[in-house]
Amino acid sequence: MDASRYFDAMHNAMSTLHAGAQLLLTIRLQDTCGNDAYLEVKQLPGEQSALVCYSTMGRRCLNFQLFRKGWQLCHNADGQLTGRFPSSADSLLSQTDFRAYCREDRLDAARTQRLVEELGQRAGTSYVGAIPQNARTGAQITVESHLGRGARWSYWNQDASPCLPLAAILYWLADFLAGNERRALQSDPQAAALAAQWLAKDTAVFFCPSPALTVSPAAGHSVPAAQRTRPAPVPAARSKSWQSVLAAMAAV
Q: What pTM does this model have?
């Protein structure tokens, strides 16, 4: 299975998970060793957070699973040949449920809003960088935005990122991946610094609201929580036996 068919299969599988969600962003990571990854960022109507759907198995490992499945179809439990190996991969692909290789998680509201704002500002962008032909390391990153007029970036991960805010967004999304796929999207130190700066700023806005206001029933206006007076604590009741002990101690 080539990279194009791998990405199409993952996209079709993820499209069946949340039919009513709006697709915000798609990311294709094509590694030279076949450690590919595919991610989609979606948002359900009426929600501030976003869904991140991502593949849990790269193309190389998935090809091995398909070969293993084909071998099992023509051998019995004792390893004896009982049939013919499938002549094409189409039959194996049609019998494979790719949803088993997909997983989803949540992107919080602060980072989702930042993602939407940054992609909206760069609607209509199209960038295609130089892709080395005989590279032994690295990966091709293809990002497509589906907001507004859309946007598309395609570049080699070992080159400078064509858009630093985009690289910072990918740095966030790479946390859902593991291994080489994660390292390929988190290789830019400037993107890491910008992502951390955004997170500190946006989280403070979302999760540190202004002081709560309470309404005074007498005056009918709002009073800051810091100016509210608390009732004096009620002294604990003392029994007669405890009072006698105190009196005896005072007489000593």
A: 0.70
Say if 128 falls within a structural domain: yes
Residue 237 CA to residue 234 CA, distance in Å, equals 9
Which of 148, 181, 185, 147 shows the shortest CA–CA distance to 166? 185
What is the bridge-based pairing of β-strands 37-43 and 126-128? unpaired
- Residue 60: which residues within 8 A CB-CB, separation 6 or more? 33, 34, 35, 36
Full pLDDT tens readout for the chain, 252 residues = 677 787 888 888 888 888 788 999 999 998 887 778 899 999 999 899 999 998 877 676 666 667 666 766 677 777 777 777 766 666 666 667 778 778 899 999 999 999 999 999 999 989 999 888 878 888 899 999 998 889 999 999 888 888 999 999 999 999 998 888 888 898 889 999 999 999 888 665 554 554 444 444 444 454 454 455 554 544 444 444 444 444 545 554
What span, in angstroms and rounded, lies between the C-alpha atoms of 206 and 213? 18
Whether 243 maps to a domain, the answer reads no
Number of domains in the chain: 1
What is the amino acid identity at position 166? L
Structural domain range at position 76: 3-207
Does residue 213 belong to any structural domain of this protein?
no
CA distance 39 to 7: 10
